[in-house]
Amino acid sequence: MSAFKEKLEAWREKAKKAISKFPEREERFATSSDIEVERLYVPEDGGQEYLEKLGFPGEYPFTRGIQPTMYRGRYWTMRQYAGFGSAEETNERFRYLLEQGQTGLSTAFDLPTQIGYDADDPMARGEVGKVGVSISSLADMETLLKGIPLDKVSTSMTINAPASVLLAMYIAVGEKQGVTSDKLTGTIQNDILKEYVARGTYIYPPQHSMRLITNIFEYCAEKVPNWNTISISGYHIREAGSTAVQEVAFTLSNAIAYVQAAIDAGLPVDKFAPRLSFFFNAHNNFLEEIAKFRAARRIWAKIMRHRFKAQDPKSWQLRFHTQTGGSTLTAQQPDNNIVRVTIQALAAVLGGTQSLHTNSRDEALALPTEDSARIALRTQQIIAYESGVSDTVDPLGGSYYIEYLTDEIEKRVWEYIEKIDEMGGAVAAIEQGYMQREIQHASYQTQLEIESGKQIVVGMNKFKLDNEPQPELLRVNPELGRIQAERLAKLRSERNNEEVQKRLQALKQAAEGDANLMPYILDAVRAYATTGEICNAMRSVFGEYRPSLF
Ligand SMILES: CC(C)(COP(=O)(O)OP(=O)(O)OC[C@H]1O[C@@H](n2cnc3c(N)ncnc32)[C@H](O)[C@@H]1OP(=O)(O)O)[C@@H](O)C(=O)NCCC(=O)NCCSC(=O)CCC(=O)O
């Protein structure tokens, strides 16, 4: 038997074992004409080249997916990013989405929370509850998660600079529900490097931020073992205008920096690497996007296995969430966005995503209304339940064009990674403004092409309407800032302020040394110290990051 056939047989055996533990959705999959659909389609004998480049799903280098059965076993998690106004309003939207068949939660925080200010801070004025929910203390978090069983639902939180604080609040709500931290499942974004490059919600300078991240890796490995400790994000790099290749290259370079920082802090790679996760964008160039996801998986597997010498196959797997491309949406003829989102979501699924957010049609104009959010969720459900694309693993694997694009993206990504390595790694490249300049250049080129009409955006620079109908938009309560400030005043008058000060002082002292800060943050949170107070305690030790102009 050839090596290919031997490996294929071994994979089939392995898949059978996996299915006995985690059964597939159906006993038998078939098309509408009753043609039986097999788990995997492979060439007659792919030889060594197939084995090296593609392999089998669930096995190194994971080009064809991280699970042997992929969506035949379980659909991706349908995880709509949601949050606005107060914790009550967002809790209501969360419950609505779960009732409508969403399978995971994803929290959008407002800007003050994202940069560690309380709702009553003068810095927060005008921004409270605008782009996400306002969470100033454990009391808000309790309201946000009311009636949601934390041992059953996994929750993602898009929080970066104050990630440790919001994670501590989540753990504390779990404690109140009787769910111990080892039972919690979810993800914090916690990806500060891309904040300096593309997104902007940083607080502390890079070295202190990297320490906090490493502290979280270490703490979670012990206490919250099923938590995804970081969501290393290309999404925002792409939103800032990068190309697909740059999105993968800069994300993986940042990921290398996180892994290196944790290893330098003394953590064994296989202890934290299985819980690293990723987050990518999906744009309209359908086939390039599919190839991008496949290439990213293959490159990461090589990096983890060969560069960092990880032994556990779970450390080699690139698991990722996808969001459809916000920057591709148009304010004009917003219903057209439903079609864009469908194409992008399908690319994510054909690329093997673990979790997916589909944007709402009105997101170029405002936060989504309930109707728009429902249509966005329905879009994923139609792909899952009606299209049949989930019935076989990596259905486009072996397409000449897809494989060519996968190889080509991989080659170009390695070129960037090598260049960034030569510059001293991602942190140095960011400090020198290299990634920022590369993204700005790509973004400017795209803008020029759109303005000249070379790149067509349907309904925006071609096929325009003279009279645009005005859609109904969601408006955030302008009184929210005041309401939240009143609540905070009440909280501060009712809690044990002496205890709060004691715990904040202990945190400060720990920050001056080199202890893991998570237990101190958790202690402060439990005493109802606020987001702003905890972040200010660390600000007083770490200082604030001020960007240079590049
Ligand atoms: C790893 C991911 C990507 C996905 O995790 P999930 O729990 O949803 O999915 P999962 O890990 O694939 O599946 C859950 C469990 O089922 C198992 N499982 C899945 N499929 C299987 C199969 N076929 N066979 C056997 N087991 C299977 C998995 O191994 C896992 O168990 P085990 O764990 O036991 O293995 C995570 O990090 C995540 O959910 N990320 C979401 C990030 C996010 O929503 N971000 C929003 C950003 S929004 C944003 O930034 C917007 C813009 C802005 O604000 O600027």
Write the layout of secondary structure elements.
Blueprint lengths: L2 H19 L25 H7 L23 E6 L4 H13 L4 E5 L2 H4 L23 H7 L10 E4 L4 H15 L8 E3 L4 H7 L6 H18 L3 E2 L1 E4 L1 H5 L4 H21 L4 H4 L3 E7 L3 H22 L5 H4 L3 E5 L11 H15 L4 E3 L12 H17 L13 H23 L3 H6 L2 H19 L27 H15 L2 H16 L5 H9 L4 H12 L8
Parallel strand pairs: 1-2, 1-9, 2-3, 3-4, 4-5, 6-7, 7-8, 8-9
Helix pairs in contact: 3-5, 6-21, 10-12, 10-16, 12-14, 12-16, 14-15, 20-21, 20-22
Keywords: Isomerase
GO molecular function: cobalamin binding; methylmalonyl-CoA mutase activity
Protein name: Methylmalonyl-CoA mutase
Q: Would you kindly provide a written description of the structure presented here, covering whatever features stand out?
A:
- This protein has helices spanning 3-21, 47-53, 87-99, 111-114, 138-144, 163-177, 193-199, 206-223, 235-239, 244-264, 269-272, 286-307, 313-316, 336-350, 370-386, 400-422, 426-431, 434-452, 480-494, 497-512, 518-526, 531-542; strands at 77-82, 104-108, 155-158, 186-188, 227-228, 230-233, 276-282, 320-324, 355-357.
- It has 550 residues and is α/β, with parallel strands linked by helices.
- The chain has a single domain, classed as Alpha-Beta Barrel (TIM Barrel), CATH 3.20.20.240.
- It has a 9-stranded parallel beta sheet.
- Helix 6 (163-177) crosses helix 21 (518-526), helix 14 crosses helix 15 (370-386) and helix 20 runs antiparallel to helix 21 (518-526).
- The protein is globular and about 75 Å long.
